[in-house]
Amino acid sequence: MTNQIRVFSAHERFHQLEGKIIRAIKKTLSFLKKQGLVLEVYLVGDRIMRKLNLKFKKKNKTTNVLSFPALSPLIFREPKLDRRFNHLGEIYLNPDYISRKQENLEAMLIHGLLHLLGFDHKNKFQAAKMERLEEKLLDKL
Fold first, then answer.
1. Has residue 74 got a pLDDT over 50?
2. Alpha carbon of 37 to those of 7, 16, 52: distances in Å?
3. In 10 A of CB 93, how many CB atoms?
4. Distance CA 76, CA 3 (A)
5. Do residues 67 and 112 lie in contact, with contact meaning Cβ atoms separated by under 8 Å?
6. What's the chain look like in SS3?
């Protein structure tokens, strides 16, 4: 069973990134041996990201990436998801911010994806484990 990845661009200038994002997610999930997942990625600008960050993280500023697991009451679920698939969640990326900060788009995507897969960085041990896996996955891309 394959994975279903959907990418939505809030701005026309982000359309060129959609294929790159889909390929990166497919390779990452394949390497992690994850199948039957539905994942949605939203490419948004500063205004939308700031609103999301304020509403859900209580931070009145824009950011690079936000992830919302499917079990979270925060996500905006489509009503007709294929029940054969496990809806992993949603990732919101801000390509403008990522570019301004000279960050790597794939690194931010992987970071958000790992959060949806249960990884976190709340303590030094978790952070180190997550960072090692992020580096390994980036090398595979």
1. no
2. 14, 24, 24
3. 26
4. 19
5. yes
6. CCCEEEEEECCHHHHHHHHHHHHHHHHHHHHCCCCCEEEEEEECCHHHHHHHHHHHHCCCCCCCEEEEECCCCCCCCCCCCCCCCEEEEEEEECHHHHHHCCCCHHHHHHHHHHHHCCCCCCCHHHHHHHHHHHHHHHHHC
Distance CA 112, CA 120 (A): 10
What amino acid occupies position 138? L
Share the mean pLDDT of the chain. Answer: 89
Separation CA 87–CA 59 (nearest Å):
27
Task: Give the pLDDT confidence of 27-47 residue by residue, as tens digits.
Answer: 999 999 999 899 999 999 999
Domain residue limits, the chain? 4-140
CATH topology of domain 4-140: Collagenase (Catalytic Domain) (3.40.390)
Identify the CA nearest to 117 among candidates 103, 125, 129, 105.
129
The model carries a pTM of 0.87
Angle, helices 124-140 vs 18-31, to 10°: value is 110
User: Taking Cα atoms as reference points, which of 97, 89, 6 lies closest to residue 44?
Assistant: 97
Say if residues 44 and 92 touch (Cβ distance below 8 Å).
yes
